[in-house]
Each structure stands twice: as C-alpha cells, then as structure tokens.
Design a protein that fits this description.
This protein is α+β, with helices and mostly antiparallel strands and 148 residues long. It has four helices and seven strands; from the N terminus they run αββββαββααβ. It has helices spanning 6-13, 53-60, 96-110, 114-120; strands at 19-24, 30-35, 38-39, 44-46, 63-69, 78-92, 126-139.
C-alpha cells in the first residue's frame, strides 16, 4: 500500500473528485458533507454557499478533515487531509480569487456548460474557505501492512 507522491496527489486532486469535508458540530458530533474542492499544491479551497451549515461549524471548531478518493480507478488512490479551516472571505458576491477558483471548479466538475450556471449565480453570496493541511496521508493499491 504505497503512499502517493506529491505529483500523484496533485493529479488526483486536479480531477473531478468529490471531497468529503468532516467538521465538528457544537455538540461534538461529526458532520460530513460532500464538496467540490480546489487544491493549489499547498492548501485546499472550498466555496460554500452563504447558508451552508458547516461554515458555522468551522467558525466554532476549525479542525477539519477532508477525504478524497477515486473509486473508479482500480488502484483506488486516496488522500486524507487533516488540518485547520479558515474563512478567507465571505459571505460576499464572487469576485477575484474566489471567482477564479469557482470557474476552474465548475469547468472541472460540470464542463463548459457549467459556466452558464456560475454566471447566473455569481451574485449569490458565498464564502471562500481554506483548509491548511497539518497532515496529509495518501495511499493506493492493496492493504496497509498492519492489516496483513
């Protein structure tokens, strides 16, 4: 069960992988939500809508985990990011860096037709959320030796 190289991690996260963001609710219970993600090689960005419940959870407890997996590839590459989430901006209408990231994500996940949807909702307030990794674990192919 080899870990992925940094280049393989970048390649995996550059695809249309639906990430699972795990946060902590105020009562201590876990909360997991599927999200689109943007990885710049050092941090992960997520663009939640203004009323996304998990934003308040991040405000209360910034420790998060993000699970990303390719379930189609027979090697099943996986990346687990544990880190701290911060609200970079928002809720605001999309512009600047947030809009650049949103355009890249919508094309990657929905293709060129997704740009029309993005443009039609550009004034809807959103947040730009940044997850800075404290630990990145990756793997593909087979079982970890501890299971053997």
């Amino acid at each position: 069960m080899p870990g992925l190289t940094p280049e393989q991690i970048d390649e995996l996260l550059a695809g249309p992988i639906i990430a699972r963001l795990a946060t902590v609710k105020p009562d201590g219970a876990p909360y997991v939500v599927p999200v689109w993600e943007y990885w710049d090689g050092e941090a992960m960005f997520i663009i939640p809508r203004e009323k996304s419940r998990f934003v308040e959870y991040v405000e209360n407890e910034p420790r998060v985990a993000v699970s990303c997996a390719d379930d189609v590839d027979p090697d099943h590459p996986r990346v687990l990011i544990e880190g701290a989430a911060e609200i970079v901006e928002g809720p605001v209408k999309m512009a600047g860096r947030m809009l650049e990231i949103a355009r890249e994500m919508v094309v990657r996940y929905s293709g060129e037709p997704g740009l029309a949807y993005l443009e039609s909702t550009i004034d809807n307030p959103r947040y730009l959320l940044k997850v800075t990794p404290v630990r990145v674990t990756s793997w593909a192919k087979g079982w970890h030796p501890r299971y053997g």
